[in-house]
Amino acid sequence: MENEKAFIQELLHPKTRDAAFGKLLQYYQKPLYYHIRSIVLDHDDADDVLQNTFIKVHTYLKDFKGESKLYSWIYRIATNESLTFLQQKNKRQGFTHSEWQEKALAKLETDVYFEGEAFQLQLQEAIARLPEKQQLVFKMKYFQEIKYEDMSEILGTSVGALKASYHHAVKKIEEFIKTN
């Protein structure tokens, strides 16, 4: 968004709120979907989490203090919603995170919304074997090209720690691809 402060005022003003929120949806819907999808993997789950994210953004916009960028704030909500969704889903189904990852990977092969080929599936399998934090950092950096500074605001982690997580993730992925 070009002039974020003016846009936030539009979002908060009763006369311009609905139109501004429509712009926000239009601007963020697609990139947020892909961010959420990279975490939850399933298309239908991603749609549900995206809807919940926008409901929370709409509900809590009045509390946004502008201490971070609007982008970072929205992505933090989407990330937290995605992780919470997965935790609740795994708890309901009695899966550990790694068990869920294995099932999600198997499902990706038949997912009509997944556009990857054999290498993409191998990459997804390598990513699935990473610790959760490294997965998240790798996906945000590699697939979405999110800058470390923005990622730091979204995840509440130092830039140095994020760079280290990404570096370790890349090494583990390279090793997995070489040996499989």
From TrEMBL:
- GO BP, sorted A to Z: DNA-templated transcription initiation
Protein family: Belongs to the sigma-70 factor family. ECF subfamily.
Listed PANTHER family: RNA POLYMERASE ECF-TYPE SIGMA FACTO (PTHR43133), RNA POLYMERASE SIGMA FACTOR (PTHR43133:SF51)
The RNA polymerase sigma-70 region domain extends over 24-91
- Pfam families given for it? Sigma70_r2, Sigma70_r4_2
Q: Give the matching InterPro entries.
A: RNA_pol_sigma-70-like, RNA_pol_sigma-70_dom, RNA_pol_sigma70_r2, RNA_pol_sigma70_r4_t2, RNA_pol_sigma_r2, RNA_pol_sigma_r3/r4-like, WH-like_DNA-bd_sf
Taxonomic lineage of the native organism: Bacteria, Pseudomonadati, Bacteroidota, Flavobacteriia, Flavobacteriales
Q: Does the record's keyword annotation contain Mitochondrion? A: no
Q: Which residues form a coiled coil?
A: none
Which Gene3D superfamilies does the record associate with it? 1.10.1740.10, Winged helix-like DNA-binding domain superfamily/Winged helix DNA-binding domain (1.10.10.10)
Which protein is depicted?
RNA polymerase sigma-70 factor, ECF subfamily
